[in-house]
């Protein structure tokens, strides 16, 4: 059976769990990471020398990197509806996934770690984080307003998975935030999907 290593409240593990549910695949999961066994445990370093979750075991194949795992699962299970084969469409989806894990998440990280994890090391980065995160949210809002309802237009794709999880965190972390109407509509639309209810909009930031 497929096996996921990583705590279910990690934004990167949640991408994989959401995808597995989109595909209707059964899996087992082992808790590792903050609040559980630490990822610098020598036992975990044998699973992933980089020392982060998630990791997927698919039989005798082991894979790290959340976005890569999501793409692998789409391809392996022939889900061209979620990750089309055409090169430009595919690259555009990958661009949204890369953006969601880098530029879109850069401002989010200190805000989340200060306000939710309550790590004092991030306290002085909250204002700058909110500013940066809000600017990127504005980019997504304008894109969805002009080209939505999903990041790739009419159809839900894996481009919405990393993006949708950062959007969940935006609405779930308590701070004074500007209103982005198209992003709110997107959040409600994603919430119609049971896998997003389970792993995205599930009350966990
Ligand atoms: N680029 C990696 C990043 C993974 C990552 O940063 N994972 C975090 C959790 S979201 C982690 O393992 N943190 C250590 C911990 O939970 O103890 C991916 O996308 O899979």
Please characterize this protein's 3D structure.
The protein has ten helices and four strands, in the order βαβαββαααααααα. It is α+β, with helices and mostly antiparallel strands and about 200 residues long. The mean pLDDT is about 100. It has a four-stranded mixed β-sheet with strand order 2-1-3-4, covered by helices on one side. It starts with a strand and ends in a 6-residue tail after the last helix. The longest helix is centred in the middle third of the chain and has 22 residues, at about 125-145. The chain has helices at about 10-20, 40-45, 65-75, 85-100, 105, 110-115, 125-145, 160-170, 180-190, 195-200, and strands at about 1-5, 25-30, 55-60, 60-65. The chain has two domains: about 1-75, Glutaredoxin (3-Layer(aba) Sandwich); about 85-200, Glutathione S-transferase Yfyf (Class Pi), Chain A, domain 2, CATH 1.20.1050.10. α1 runs parallel beside α3 and α1 (about 10-20) packs across α8. The radius of gyration is 17 Å and the shape is globular. The site of glutathione has 13 residues, from α1 and α3.
How is this fold's topology laid out?
Blueprint: E1 2-5, H1 11-22, E2 27-30, H2 42-47, E3 55-58, E4 61-64, H3 66-76, H4 87-101, H5 103-106, H6 108-115, H7 126-147, H8 160-172, H9 181-190, H10 194-199
Parallel strand pairs: 1-2
Antiparallel strand pairs: 1-3, 3-4
Bound molecules: glutathione.
